[in-house]
Amino acid sequence: METLALIVDDRTVDLGKLAEFARSVGDVAVDGPVLTLRRGDEHCHVVEVSDPEADGIFEDWPQARIPTSPRAIFSVDYRAPDLAAALVQSIAQRCPLTVDTNYGHLVPGGDLTPDMLIPRVRICGLGGGE
């Protein structure tokens, strides 16, 4: 599974609120600390991040972009980029958030597209002398 981080500006957002936001995307279930979103054969899992420093959420961020005030932070594990992007879009319609794709994209939630969630493979020796 791939992972992305959601940094929601509204600290009051929790898994319950995320479940409400995601209902327009697919079937939602919250089981303890895990929200599962399903649509057809696709699924993703969301958990709240309680210690962003220990989880290394901001370790690759430019210093100027690291939030100075508390935020609600979630980790999303997914296999289907379309579903993960739809989840993010459903949240972005209700509150501002920043997404760290773990593929070099740090974007506002409303700007996330599924292609930003697909790893790019570099093949040495092909394509311009790399």
Protein model, in words:
The protein has 130 residues and is of the alpha+beta class. 15% of the residues lie in helices and 30% in strands. The chain has 2 helices and 7 strands, in the order E-H-E-E-E-E-H-E-E. The chain has a 7-stranded antiparallel sheet with strand order 2-3-4-5-1-6-7, covered by helices on one side. It is globular.
SS field, number of helical segments: 2
Main β-sheet description? 7 strands, antiparallel
Calculate Rg over CA atoms: 15 Å
Name the beta content range.
Answer: 25-35%
Helix/strand/pairing category: alpha+beta
Largest sheet, spatial ordering of strands: 2-3-4-5-1-6-7
Task: List the uncertain runs.
Answer: 122-130
Kindly, what is the distance between the CA atoms of the first and last residues, rounded to a whole number of angstroms? Answer: 28 Å
Topology pattern, helix = H, strand = E: EHEEEEHEE
Strand count: 7
The shape is globular
Helix content: 10-25%
Compact summary:
By secondary structure, this protein is α+β, with helices and mostly antiparallel strands. It has two helices and seven strands.
